[in-house]
What we know:
By secondary structure, this protein is α/β, with parallel strands linked by helices. It contains ten helices and twelve strands.
Amino acid sequence: MNIVCFGFGQVAKNFIKKIYSENLKINLTVTSREKSGKKSFGNLDYQSFHFSEHSFDQKLIESLRSSDHILVSIAPVKGEDIVTKNFQNNLEKSKIKWITYLSATSVYGNHNGDWVDENSDTKPTSSNGIDRLNAEKSWIDLAKKKSLPLQILRLSGIYSNQNNILARLKSGNAKLIDKKNQFFSRVHVEDIANILFKSLKNFKTKEIYNISDDKPTSSKELILYGSKLLNIERPKVVDLSTIESEMVKNFYKDSKKVNNKKMKEFFNYKLKYPTYVEGLNYIYNNII
């Protein structure tokens, strides 16, 4: 497989790690804001090309034209998807078998704690959600125009063995904000990587999937469980009105429970970490 990853963050790296663990041969190209160059990830050597909203290495176009799988995990910049903006004329259907755009469940906006599925109204309240929805639309329009094989994965809040509530509690960076009827959904990065891997063989174009675990909860419930695991005193309750971070305020604008039924049925997938309990227990027992 000739894979191009626009962005090479935790999701893309876990996806490539999963592919490599299955002994599949791949030719990997990624993009980065850094200078172009040869790099390695574990035992895998790959080519990294410079790409930002201002400029990109022209050699990236050659890799793009020979690619058959493209993963896009770059966040919109100033409300625009910079991949469709810069490369819409370089995507050829004859070679491409699989394009996945990683979006976010923030596109749903606030549903007052109700369940949302892929057919629910998208009424984003945050700038992140608005930008993600615009990016989705630009990919859908391009896929129609060029007859490209596209799937969109709407990711819930991502946590990993390195980035999680236990790590934030230990560092003293966790804030306990108690807001009634506030529900969030989350998913472990390994489950995202496993779904991506399964979709290499089980792919249906023009489809959107929510990628989430089985148990939406309040952030308070998560923090209380994490504090109990670590056997530390829970953080003091902070009033939301005193929070200065716009990102945190936006986070608390929305309350919804994300339904993952379509994901589990289509990909025939059993979550490795079905709830935060299994995820945090594993991290506590094996990582921390």
